[in-house]
Each structure stands twice: as structure tokens, then as C-alpha cells.
Write a structure and sequence with these properties.
The chain is built from 3 helices and 3 strands; from the N terminus they run H-E-E-E-H-H. The chain is rod-shaped, with a radius of gyration of 32 Å. The N and C termini lie far apart (111 Å).
Length: 115
């Protein structure tokens, strides 16, 4: 039997390390590609998202009664809201639907109650 030299063992160890490093780099490259794909999908989804509505009308539990009028950016609009046009928001205010006290759509719309 021949005895393996120290130099041959070092060359073998180097080949093993290169092989493991190559496998690790391939795995990292796969993770990077996956994340780049997810980021691109997020950007595309963001670009395709429709703009938020300018006005919202909040409905009550029954869905028939209107509870409040909000601006589109209102942070306190509740969950039962529907997008509304400027004309619909003004019409709701004229029909005694209260404006949100947080976002003040009546002020933003220039609405003044007619006495």
C-alpha cells in the first residue's frame, strides 16, 4: 500500500472545499434569483394598482343606510366603504349623511350646509 502524502491530502481537501463552495454559491444564486423575481412582481403589482378613490361613503351594517362620507385618504374610514365620485359625496352630504370628523370631506369638497 502506498502512503498518501500530505500534499495529496491538501489537494484533496482543496477540491472538497471548492466543490462545497460551488454548491453553496449555486444555492445563494438561486435564492437571489427568487428574491429578484419576487421584487419584480411586487413592483409590477404596485404599478398596476389603481389609484385610490378620492371619496368614500361608509355604509351601515344593513348596507342600505349611509353612515359617513370620507376622503379617500382617511385613516378612520371603517371597513364598509365604497368608492364615490365627487358628485356622489356632495349628494350624500346634502342628504344629511354626516362628514367624517377626522378627515373633514365637507371642508375638502367646499361643502357648506344650506340653511
Amino acid at each position: 500500500m502506498s502512503e498518501t502524502s500530505r500534499l495529496e491530502l491538501l489537494h484533496f481537501a482543496r477540491r472538497v472545499v471548492v466543490q462545497q463552495a460551488s454548491a453553496a454559491i449555486s444555492q445563494l444564486d438561486g435564492w437571489i434569483a427568487d428574491e429578484e423575481r419576487r421584487e419584480a412582481e411586487r413592483r409590477r403589482a404596485e404599478e398596476q394598482r389603481p389609484p385610490p378613490p378620492e371619496w368614500l361613503i361608509e355604509r351601515g351594517l344593513s348596507g342600505n343606510n349611509m353612515v359617513a362620507v370620507h376622503t379617500g385618504e382617511c385613516w378612520d374610514s371603517g371597513k364598509r366603504v365604497r368608492a364615490a365620485t365627487r358628485a356622489q359625496a356632495l349628494d350624500a352630504l346634502r342628504n344629511q349623511v354626516p362628514p367624517c370628523t377626522r378627515c373633514r370631506p365637507d371642508t375638502a369638497l367646499g361643502f357648506r350646509e344650506e340653511a
